[in-house]
Amino acid sequence: MAIKYEFVWWERLYELCFMLYEKIINSGFRPDVIVGVARGGWIPARILSDLFFTRETANVKVDLYRGIYARDIEPRVSQKLPKDKQWNAPLLVDDISDTGDSLVIALNHLKNRGYKNPRTACLHMKPWTKLIPDYYIINTEAWVVYPWELKEFTYNLSAKLTGEGKTPIEVEAYLFKVGVPIHYAQLFLKQWLQRNIESKSHMSSQSKAKKSK
Q1: Domain residue limits, the chain
Q2: 138 C-beta neighbours (distance < 10 Å), count
Q3: 22-75 pLDDT, tens per residue?
């Protein structure tokens, strides 16, 4: 089955964050710190910190994805919460709960730090996730693309399509077809192709250097 992509642009992103904020305040929960799950949760967490009018923010980085079609086998927390803070109502924020792995690991990290009742919030959730957030806005099966990852998305999809034998013209057409604006598609594809050429040239030089030894 063909993958369906859903692009979330900046205005829509703010609208989703505002809807999430309304859902949280209507539940009666008032966070005293907003914890963003890096990297996808950074911007939603920052917007929510403004909406809740709180300066208390923190970061947890979970290394999980390596691209659109690849994953790290052993997810891990590489940036942790400070040990000297005492928060009573942390809100853990990510962009999406896909498999739920990153949220589960980040949530366990908060609990291991002694926070007993953290809440979780995401803009999107996949129906197969391991962890249903306490607060979310959209349940979707689509591959959601946020504005802060558009270039990474374009690079990874270009690599996949090129690996399947597509020409640069075909790759550009497909990028535009699925929803990447044409200017970005053209520029990012051009940069990816140049980067690919330079990478192959570097690998070839290294190979020749090893043979000459």
Answers
A1: 5-145, 148-212
A2: 15
A3: 999 999 999 999 999 999 999 999 999 999 999 999 999 988 655 555 555 567
Pairing of strands 33-38, 57-65: parallel
Beta strands 33-38; 90-97: pairing state: parallel
**Identity of the amino acid at 21:** Y
> Measured in Å, how far apart are the chain's first and last C-alpha atoms?
50
65-103: string of b/e by CB count within 10 Å (b at 16+)?
beebeeeeeebebeeebeeeeebeebbbbbbbbbbbbbb
**Which two structure tokens, joined as six digits, stand for 63?**
């290394």
What is the spatial distance between Cα 36 and Cα 47, in angstroms, rounded to a whole number? Answer: 11
Measured CA to CA, the distance from residue 169 to residue 2 in angstroms comes to 20
* Inter-axis angle of helices 182-212 and 150-163, nearest 10: 60
Strands 143-145 and 119-125: unpaired
Q: Does the predicted model carry a pTM greater than 0.70?
A: yes
Cα–Cα distance for residue pair 158/168, rounded to 1 Å? 8
Question: What pLDDT score does 211 carry?
Answer: 57
CA gap 1, 213 in Å, rounded = 50
For the domain made up of 5-145, the CATH class stated in words is alpha beta
Q: Which amino acid makes up residue 144?
A: V
Indicate the burial class of 121 (C-beta count within 10 angstroms; 0-12, 13-18, 19 or more).
buried
CB 102 within 8 A of CB 39: no
